[in-house]
Amino acid sequence: MPSNTLYVTKRGSFSFVLGLVASALFRRFEALRLDKKTPPSALFIPNRKSGDGKPTKVRRLRASDASKGFYELLSQLTEVGKGDFGRRFREITNGCERVYVIESEDGSRIVASGTLVLERKFTRNCGTCGHIEDVVVDEGERGRDLGRVIVEALTRAAEACGCYKVILDCNESNVGFYERCGFKRKEVQMAKYFI
């Protein structure tokens, strides 16, 4: 019998599977215990162009947002494949990404979205760096300050997660917008695409 082969009896297989499940649950709860800084589920950001002066609610993505035009909104930013929304939603919910959205006033559709990705590092005293990704505002809603609102919400969420900085990559045409949001041009982006 080779020494690197695992043989499990019927009784042992149950114990083995139970051990795997317990180990996975322990790692998940231990990570939650150690990571006391968590992003808020919703933020209220002042909107300078709101007629009534009320702040805009920015909340975390929900599974039900697939039926509120979430994919259609993202397609205004880049190519989008339908894929398996439920599977990806579960992966994002359990991972290092935080997707925030703004709903239309009647709550029927998603009109703005952005993603915060948390990069846990060994440098910077084992710090966390936030990356802002996939910021998009519906074409019919642009000019209402929602882009700034979503970027500010992502920035505040990064701060709430204990990030020492938040960074983003953008097209040259969007540099002015992000500078108005408080970002500064820094370094150079490099990319290598596989698809």
Write the layout of secondary structure elements.
Layout (H helix, E strand, L loop, with lengths): L9 H25 L7 E4 L10 E5 L9 H5 L10 H10 L2 E7 L6 E11 L2 H4 L1 E10 L8 H15 L2 E6 L6 H6 L15
Structure characteristics:
Aminopeptidase; 6 strands; globular; disordered N terminus
Question: How would you sum up this structure, described in words?
Answer:
This protein is 33% helix and 22% strand. The chain has 195 residues and is α+β, with helices and mostly antiparallel strands. It has a single domain, classed as 3-Layer(aba) Sandwich (Aminopeptidase). A six-stranded mixed sheet has the order 1-2-3-4-5-6, sandwiched between helices. The longest helix has 25 residues, at 10-34. It is an enzyme of class 2 (transferase). Keywords: Acyltransferase, Transferase. Homodimer. Pathway: Nucleotide-sugar biosynthesis; UDP-N-acetyl-alpha-D-glucosamine biosynthesis; N-acetyl-alpha-D-glucosamine 1-phosphate from alpha-D-glucosamine 6-phosphate (route I): step 1/2.
Helix content: 25-40%
CATH architecture: 3-Layer(aba) Sandwich
Could you give the count of β-strands? 6
Number of helices: 6
- Low-confidence stretches at least 5 residues in length (pLDDT < 50)? 1-9
What radius of gyration results from the CA coordinates? Answer: 21 Å
Straight-line distance between termini: 44 Å
Sheet bearing the most strands, described?
6 strands, mixed
Query: What is the highest CATH level, the class?
Result: Alpha Beta
Strand order of the largest sheet: 1-2-3-4-5-6
CATH fold type: Aminopeptidase
- How many domains? The number is 1
Which structural class do you get from the secondary structure elements? alpha+beta
Order of helix and strand elements from N to C terminus: HEEHHEEHEHEH
Mean pLDDT: 83
How much beta, percentage-wise? 15-25%
Task: Report the CATH superfamily.
Answer: Gcn5-related N-acetyltransferase (GNAT)
Shape: globular
